[in-house]
Amino acid sequence: MPGAYHGSHMKVFYSDVFVAAGEEFDTTRKAAWIAESLGARAIAGTELVEPAPLVAAQLEVVHAPAYVRAVQTGEPRSLAESNGFRWDAGLWTAVCASNGGVVEAALHAAKTGSHAGALSSGLHHARHATGGGFCTFNGIALAVRTVMGLEREHSRRILILDLDAHCGGGTYSLVRDIPGVVQADISVCKTDFYQPGSGSSSTLEIIALAADYLPTLAARLDALAGEPFDLLIYNAGMDPHEDSAIGGLKGITTAVIAERERLVFDWAQRNHVGVAFTLAGGYTGGRLDQAGLVQLHRLTIGAAIQRD
Ligand SMILES: [Zn+2]
Predict the structure, then answer these.
(1) I need a surface site. Which of 113, 127, 164, 201 has the fewest CB within 10 A?
(2) How many angstroms is it from 3 CA to the middle of ligand 1?
(3) What distance in angstroms lies between residue 107's CA and the mean position of ligand 1's atoms?
(4) Least reliable range by pLDDT among 8-22, 93-107, 112-126, 145-159
(5) Residue 148 reports pLDDT greater than 70
(6) Mean pLDDT for the stretch of residues 189-210
(7) How remote is the CA of residue 300 from the centroid of ligand 1, in Å?
């Protein structure tokens, strides 16, 4: 139960090799910016923990062996670069570690009921046999599969909350047939759009007006309250922010994002669900600089620690 471990530190999984890819982009670099920021200006109660990198066999629980091999070896190059990044050997090192971080955060949250996070991004558009949209492997689906594989007498129920600006169609394609998994997705554009199957409890809502954003989230969380989830995996994208160079929706300000994080972690606390959060989207350029992006992602960590 959240609170039961009061006094212990909230684990945030990160390793220097999260940023080992040669490609210079927010997705491949921002974990280090945030880790540095946590070193310079600590958020009391957080602890950076190095995750074990996933190995190919673990990735193949979700992904096609040919795709896994392509990312590992760089061949065929078009498949190895289906995430949109130039391939180099460091990419494999980085994504094995950062997806391992998501898995470990989810295992920790599921086992203890307390929150944990991973400074991981580039997850939710990845599909069985291909990457896409800056996403290489789908750490969310990998985490679901790993937690579901734990021995336990009752079957687990996992909620995936995806508040990235873009739809989590990759994740949905990988989890839709897993009993007990519900994906609640609130996006601000139709990239990677999908339609939850009839009879599914999963939902996808597209927001066109910033004024609808928080009320839609609050209503969705209300609708999910009382369901006995064992774990919430929160894809905490910052790209709905109006200043994000990709994804931003006018009117979604820093105050709106801060309130969003409060709503999510208040809900988790009220419903006694441990959260595993990831960074997801959020892009510099235009009006958002590196420090500004870091500050947005710190809102998630701060909200989690206050409500653990
Ligand atoms: Zn996004």
Answers:
(1) 201
(2) 31
(3) 24
(4) 145-159
(5) yes
(6) 96
(7) 16
Find the helix packing angle between 290-306 and 26-40, rounded to 10°: 60
Q: Domain segments of the chain: what residues?
A: 10-306
Cα 165 to ligand 1 centroid, rounded to whole Å: 5
pLDDT of residue 1: 42
Name every residue whose Cβ is closer than 8 Å to that of residue 241 and which is 6 or more positions away in sequence.
248, 252, 253, 254, 257, 282, 288, 296
Beta bridge partners of 12: 48, 117
Q: Residue 64 has which token pair?
A: 């096609």
Q: Who wins on pLDDT, 178 or 151?
A: 178
Counting beta carbons within 10 angstroms of the beta carbon of residue 254, is it exposed (0 to 12), middle (13 to 18) or buried (19 or more)?
middle
- pTM score, two decimals? 0.96
Q: Looking at domain 10-306, which of 3.40.630.10, 3.30.1160.10, 3.40.800.20, 2.60.120.200 is its CATH number?
A: 3.40.800.20
Residue 5: pLDDT band (50, 70, 90) is very low
